[in-house]
Design goal:
alpha/beta, single chain, about 280 residues, six-stranded mixed sheet
C-alpha cells in the first residue's frame, strides 16, 4: 500500500512538472512560434488585414484566412505543403504568409515551390491563362534574409535584357524580422518578437495573443497545441533514430522498432512519419 502511494506521488509530481514546463513554454511564445502564430491568425481577418496592409503598403480586404492549410501534391509521391497562413482577398488574389525562424525554412526555392503550388489550384479545366489571379508568398523571417538591413525585400520577375517587369502576377516578399525602425514595419516586427501582449503596438495582434495566453479558454487550447507539438517532435526523433539504426546496424524496420521497444501505437506513428520522409 505504501509502495503504491509512492508511485502515485511520483506520477503526480511528473504531471505537475510537465504542466509547469508547458506553462513556461506558453509564457515565452511569440508570433514567430508555429503554435502561437497558427492559432492567432486562424480565421482572424482583422489581424491578417493589418499585417498585409503594412507589408504590401495598400488597402486590402481579406475575405477568408486559414491557419495551417494543407495543399496536396497531385503527383503520387509528390511533396505536399502546409501554408502557415492562407488568405484570399476580395479580388480573389491568393496570399501565403510563412513565418520562419530558420534559414532552411525560408529558402528561396521553397518560396518558388509554394508559389507554384498556389498557382496550380487557381484555374479550372479550360480556363484561360489570363484569368489567373495574382499570388503573394510572404516570408516573415526572424532574421535578415539578405543581410542588407532593409525592412522588406520584394522579388518580382523581370525581363533581364530590358529590366522591365514581366507582370506575370507572381510576387515573393521577405520581411526582415530583425528590423526595428520607428515605422509600421519596425513596430510590426517588434510585435512578432514580443511574448507580452501588453508590450505590443497593434491591438489586432495584442488581442489575439492575450486570448491564447491570458484567458482560461485560450490557454487550454494553447496547452493542447504545445503538447501535440511536443509529441510530434518525439515521433520525429524516433523516426530519425530508426533510420540511423537501420543504416548502421543493417536491421530491418521490424527489428529496429523491436530493439527500440517502440509500442504498437507509437510504431504506427513512426512508420507514418518515415513514409513522409
Amino acid at each position: 500500500m505504501i509502495k503504491n502511494e509512492k508511485i502515485d506521488d511520483g506520477n503526480h509530481l511528473n504531471k505537475r512538472q510537465n504542466s509547469y514546463e508547458v506553462s513556461r513554454i506558453i509564457d515565452n511564445l511569440t508570433l514567430f512560434d508555429d503554435d502561437m502564430m497558427s492559432l492567432a491568425f486562424d480565421k482572424n481577418i482583422p489581424a491578417t488585414e493589418l499585417v498585409l496592409r503594412i507589408i504590401l503598403k495598400r488597402d486590402i480586404i481579406v475575405k477568408s484566412v486559414e491557419g495551417q492549410e494543407e495543399y496536396k501534391n497531385p503527383l503520387v509521391g509528390g511533396r505536399d505543403i502546409t501554408l502557415d497562413i492562407h488568405a484570399i482577398d476580395i479580388d480573389g488574389e491568393e496570399i501565403d504568409i510563412e513565418v520562419q525562424g530558420n534559414s532552411e525554412g525560408a529558402h528561396v526555392r521553397r518560396a518558388r515551390f509554394h508559389s507554384a503550388m498556389m498557382d496550380s489550384r487557381m484555374l479550372r479545366e479550360k480556363d484561360a491563362f489570363n484569368k489567373i489571379k495574382d499570388s503573394y508568398v510572404i516570408f516573415i523571417y526572424k532574421h535578415d534574409k539578405f543581410r542588407k538591413g532593409l525592412p522588406v525585400y520584394r522579388a518580382d520577375r523581370t525581363v533581364l535584357e530590358t529590366g522591365e517587369p514581366l507582370n506575370d502576377g507572381s510576387h515573393i516578399i521577405y520581411v526582415n524580422g530583425k528590423y526595428r525602425g520607428n515605422d509600421d514595419i519596425g513596430k510590426l516586427m517588434q510585435d512578432f518578437n514580443s511574448s507580452n501582449s501588453n508590450e505590443m503596438h497593434y491591438k489586432e495582434l495584442a488581442d489575439s495573443v492575450h486570448h491564447f495566453k491570458e484567458t482560461r479558454k485560450g490557454r487550454i487550447i494553447m496547452c493542447e497545441a504545445v503538447k501535440k507539438y511536443a509529441e510530434e517532435c518525439k515521433i520525429e526523433d524516433k523516426a530519425m533514430t530508426t533510420l540511423n539504426l537501420m543504416k548502421n546496424m543493417k536491421w530491418t524496420l521490424e527489428e529496429t522498432l523491436d530493439n527500440m521497444g517502440v509500442s504498437d501505437k507509437k510504431e504506427r506513428d513512426v512508420i507514418a512519419k518515415l513514409l513522409q520522409e
